[in-house]
Specification:
Blueprint: E1 2-8, E2 13-18, H1 21-32, E3 39-46
Antiparallel strand pairs: 1-2, 1-3
Length: 53
């Protein structure tokens, strides 16, 4: 999983967990009602989650 930092054209910066950049943009479009060309990926960080056994 990756944490993507996205900037939407209206100046809002959001962080979304997703498997890929395209998936993060799809989630932002659905959540914020914007167009894909209004979104800029600023950063991506790999997140590793460990589950106790």
């Amino acid at each position: 999983m990756h944490k993507y930092t996205l900037k939407i054209r209206d100046g809002k910066i959001v962080q979304i967990l997703a498997k890929s950049g395209g998936d993060a943009i799809k989630k932002a479009v659905k959540a914020y009602g914007c167009q894909p060309d209004e979104i800029l990926v600023i950063a991506a960080q790999k997140i590793e989650a460990y589950r106790p056994k």
